[in-house]
Design a protein that fits this description.
Crosslink repair DNA glycosylase YcaQ family protein; AlkZ-like; 13 helices; alpha+beta
């Protein structure tokens, strides 16, 4: 490709679907398929809410055939090939990249100090040695295992200074999450979590080289990204649009990044040059996929609205009377179109998977083929959740269309 190409909106959508394997073209399966997703997207955002799986599980079930949540748990807390850490926000990424994130951890530590000061909990820093000694003596430690100091000055944050101290040591990378029980974190010193050969790797990048690496990495997380402020550019070091513009221009100049112009959109887009192969995948067979609320492809909501004509807002934190749709609503992809959204019920033991509401986008025609694909995807989704599935969900989908 040249350093600047012009593509249609259709080609842009196809590229993103191909890139994220939402058309099953790469036939990703099992734990190796999960690792391939991380090699491709670099980071997946973590969120503790669990209605039909946590965000990372939902991201992976849309891309990996036969995915089960235990696969991610095994890679995180048994094999330690993945690790919890800060990237865009709280994310999961390959343990091999741990040392490359030292600048991010240092910045997170400073942010944590500011947060402690704002909450009048700065005294947590005075008990760091006590917390270190506890972890050294007892090993695996959660916030409920240690109780030092108490903070009542603020209604925000941890009530125990030791819990705030654990969180600070985690932010700086001195501690890492070695195990999780539900959403509860159990910490140990990082040298007891990250393989020694990874910790021994030197990160000799200059500040400039780090920024180039980090900006390329963020593009890889989405696949195709414009240089407009939004969710995809959140995080330390890269929120400055002018700085990004200058570094992107350099990366285009040296051929590592490709500038892409999309018909009808003034702002240029960027992709990693070697990823041009994702323009060539055939999309003849359309699949229905249920996307996570914080899916990598949806990180920039304005960009998705322009490309897919799909206005999506996650309304979990929106007051009930101000919600347009529902509490936990998932977008529905069909081929290269976002055609609907639905609100699932939290699965109950010995009860089949249930859909509370289903909303189709305007101008979407419900065909027998589409209903068949939706049913197939619901069956696979129920399998991923380890719950039963009804013979058909046609009535609830067609009911919304009639309304």
């Amino acid at each position: 490709m040249n350093r600047e190409v012009i593509i249609s909106m259709e080609e842009a959508r196809n590229f993103l679907v191909n890139y994220h394997n939402l058309n099953q073209a790469r036939n990703l399966k099992g734990i190796e398929g999960v690792m391939e997703c991380f090699r491709q997207m670099k980071s997946i955002q973590y969120d503790p809410l669990n209605v039909v799986g946590r965000n990372a599980d939902l991201v992976l079930q849309a891309r990996v055939s036969g995915y089960e949540p235990g696969m991610l748990y095994e890679l995180l807390y048994q094999r330690y090939e993945l690790i919890d850490g800060f990237d865009k926000e709280m994310c999961i990424y390959e343990a091999d990249d741990f040392n490359k994130f030292r600048r991010i951890r240092a910045a997170c530590g400073e942010t944590a100090k500011e947060r402690l000061a704002c909450r009048e909990q700065f005294d947590a820093l005075n008990v760091l040695d006590d917390v270190r000694e506890h972890v050294k003596r007892y090993g695996l430690t959660s916030s409920k295992d240690i109780s030092i100091g108490e903070s009542r000055a603020s209604r925000w944050g941890h009530k125990k200074l030791s819990s705030a101290a654990l969180d600070y040591l985690y932010c700086t990378g001195e501690l890492s999450v070695k195990e999780k029980r539900g959403t509860h974190k159990y910490y140990d010193f990082t040298e007891n979590v990250v393989p020694k050969e990874i910790l021994a790797q030197e990160d000799s990048k200059s500040d400039r080289q780090f920024l180039e690496w980090y900006i390329k990495r963020r593009i890889q997380s989405v696949g195709l990204l414009w240089n407009k402020s939004g969710g995809a550019w959140q995080g330390h070091f890269i929120s400055n649009i002018k700085l990004r513009e200058e570094i992107l221009a350099h990366l285009v100049h040296i051929g590592e990044v490709q500038m892409v112009l999309i018909e009808g959109i003034e702002s240029p887009f960027y992709m990693i040059s070697k990823d041009e192969r994702f323009f060539d995948v055939n999309l003849e067979k359309k699949h229905v996929k249920f996307l996570a609320p914080l899916d990598n492809m949806l990180w920039d909501r304005e960009m998705i609205n322009r490309l897919f004509d799909f206005n999506y807002r996650w309304e979990v934190y929106t007051p009930i009377d101000k919600r347009k749709y529902g509490y936990y609503v998932l977008p529905v992809l069909y081929g290269n179109q976002l055609i609907a959204r639905f609100e699932p019920e939290k699965p109950k033991k010995n009860e089949p998977f249930s859909i509370k509401n289903w909303w189709c986008e305007k101008n979407i025609t419900i065909t027998d083929e589409l209903l068949e694909q939706i049913q197939h995807s619901i069956e696979d989704f129920a399998r991923y959740l380890s719950v039963q599935c009804l013979d058909t969900y046609e009535d609830i989908i067609l009911k919304q269309e009639e309304e």
